[in-house]
Amino acid sequence: EMVIQTKKLGAEIQPTMYGLFFEDINYAADGGLYAELVKNRSFEFPQNLMGWKTYGKVTLMDDGPFERNPHYVRLSNPGHAHKHTGLDNEGFFGIGVRKGEEYRFSVWARLPQGNGKETLRIELVDTKSMGEHQAFAIADLTVDSKEWKKYQLILKPGMTQPKSTLRIFLTSKGTVDLEHISLFPVDTWKGHENGLRKDLAQALADIHPGVFRFPGGCIVEGTDLNTRYDWKKSVGPVENRPLNENRWQYTFTHRFYPDYYQSYGLGFYEYFLLSEEMGAEPLPILNCGLSCQYQNNDPKAHVAVCDLDGYIQDALDLIEFANGDVNSTWGKVRADMGHPAPFNLKFIGIGNEQWGKEYPERLEPFIKAIRKAYPDMKIVGSSGPNSEGKEFDYLWPEMKRLKADLVDEHFYRPESWFLAQGARYDNYDRKGPKVFAGEYACHGKGKKWNHFHAALLEAAFMTGLERNADIVHMATYAPLFAHVEGWQWRPDMIWFDNLNSVRTVSYYVQQLFAHNKGTNVLPLTMNKRNVTGAEGQNGLFASAVYDKNKNELIVKVANTSDTAQPVSLKFEGLKKQDVLSDGRCIKLRSLDLDKDNTLEQPFAITPKETPVSIQGHVFTAELEPNTFAVYKFTKK
Ligand code: AHR
């Protein structure tokens, strides 16, 4: 029996309670959410022609129009009517395009030898085609200026092809210089030109996230400090955003992608805009002067505390970029990019997974400086446990001493951990910082994929987050995205290939919590005891909330046991005349615990809603084994 007290509303559930963690891991940004289809568009990869195949007379040049991306290519007459000069781009695991949709090709070009006109053919080709023709989208481009100029045209493919090649070749006899060669679908999410892949961004928005954390993760730290995520390089005109190495080129899983770089095309402006358009609070995380904890023995991994000024200034400038008026230095950069109104940043994180004693001493000067300039800004510090489950007991007292507003905890842990931690926050210090469960996912023992059972245990654990919403203010599953051909880490919330995507069962768990988060916790006892998770409660986990905007009572129950269990929900403290109606139950279940949603079967396991009836103020039912259920009633 579960008794839910409705008389006095419990802790307020923060609007930020359920959100998203984004990191460019598993080709989540370039090759994923960022809709650019050309790899190495500015010829700045260390091997400048990586991703390209050239033929005829192509010369690499390095005095281009964009200071931070100086390389470009020069195409010259091949010297024979039956020869071509040009180049092919392989995209990210190919270039995925759909029949009948429009793709915007753009390029910066000039005629180095002066006036006149030169022509180029732009094609999408199927290099594996067995037919007469490889090209299935063709357009001609005329370059007519001695000065660098941006040229654009639309390609409309005659077929759907997940792995095409972009081909560009000279059709006249002179010389043309080309820089920043780009191809985007016209139909991006919300139609932005430097935009996002629609299906992937829509999947994020469909969660209704309360908070959006970016840009990571370990890439905040970088493999070394030179390759840390540097937000200032990620704003301004895309053509002049420099390339950065991706920390996830090499990984702990021995999946190695030597061509994994960050174009910074999806940069901080785009992250803020996405947060705004999804209705989520932006939560940028910045480097605290330490690179990835796995590199701590490397001298390139630490900035001395006395040398942190530049890093601290980056944090202050970021707040100005987000919130400053259009006359401030960084507010003007934002305004020039198209957003004169502030982004209304309220939270900022300093440091990711820094578990050593060198972290708090670096966090301290950041906190002092931010508090001084922006007393209302909420600052997020970080803490363990690490991926072995080791907790770092000295960090919480330090976070409390430093008066961090929130502390970011990460849990990539096996089934047993998720089953045992339902009560993790029941006894946390209520007087210290709040909790941001900033990265978590159930990593099945020997089952590292997004199978149903892992998601069920995440749901069970999340009831503990919800019951403790007075102290847990944010929670974000991680990682978010993975390309099926380019992943380093799993499980992940959304998988995709070049054209399609699939929402995992973990996605649906997150969505069910986010859509049914309510406004206030309601105290719930199970068999007369506070709910403390599986132990002694037959594998049942539960939490209850009230939504005062919709007058809804919502109870979430995860049955993690292999047997069906009677569930009786007794709502106490209602007035006699209060009527509970419009009962609904949304269930997520699978008979096969190892089953997952795949690109081939994306809807194998999805939430199913059915009406249920309630007798007065008591609802009884049997909950099937291994099932997550959300019960909802409207109070009238
Ligand atoms: O989510 C993958 C990685 O896990 C993150 O980059 C890091 O913060 C954690 O170790």
Outline of this structure?
Belongs to the glycosyl hydrolase 51 family. By secondary structure, the protein is an alpha/beta fold.
Keywords:
10 helices, globular, 16% helix, Immunoglobulin-like, 35 strands, 6-stranded antiparallel sheet, Jelly Rolls, binds alpha-L-arabinofuranose, TIM Barrel, 8-stranded parallel β-barrel, single chain, 3 domains, 636 residues, alpha/beta
Name the beta content range: 25-35%
Task: Tell me the number of structural domains.
Answer: 3
Extract low-pLDDT stretches.
none
Classify the fold: give the CATH topology of the largest domain. Answer: TIM Barrel
What class would the helix/strand composition place it in? alpha/beta
The CATH superfamily of the largest domain turns out to be Glycosidases
CATH arch. level architecture of the largest domain: Alpha-Beta Barrel
Distance between the termini: 24 Å
The first-level CATH class name of the largest domain: Alpha Beta
CA radius of gyration: 27 Å
Mean pLDDT: 95
Task: Please describe the biggest sheet, giving its number of strands, its sense, and whether it closes into a barrel.
Answer: 8 strands, parallel, barrel
Task: Based on Cα principal axes, name the global outline.
Answer: globular
**Tally of DSSP β-strands:** 35
Total helical segments: 10
